[in-house]
Amino acid sequence: MVWGGISTRPRTPLYHVVGNLTGVRYQNEILQPLVVPALQAIGPRAILQDDNAPPHRSAAVNTFIQQARVNRMLWPANSPDLNLIEHMWDEFCRWVQQHHPPPANLGQLLQWLQQEWNGVPRAFICNLIHSMRQRCVECLAHNGGHTRY
């Protein structure tokens, strides 16, 4: 598994998660070294958008988020259309498959993933982020159900 964060500013590095991602690992390997510095670089109005995956909502992570004074988006239980990173991963996978044959090994795959991650057009990321307001409007209009996104 890999993890990455996007924003209208520079994206986070792509991070290879080895094994199961627990709340403690999410805090220590992703939030602390990658997310908090990225949010601080954006400024006080930055908002973390993560989903309801168990590692994201563990007690340790919730405490850390509060202590780090991170603004976190409230996440509706059944609204996958709001998760911008899922749309990013869909497109990202297509780019990797278009530009590379099946990898010979994990190391080659990780190299190609990092290469493609660094090459994701900034305009694509900004368009995703700027679509968030309309995604929220449509989500509310559909009572949290699926939207055209």
TrEMBL record:
InterPro entries: RNaseH_sf, Tc1-like_DDE_dom. GO terms for molecular function: nucleic acid binding. Residues 28-100 form the Tc1-like transposase DDE domain. This is Tc1-like transposase DDE domain-containing protein.
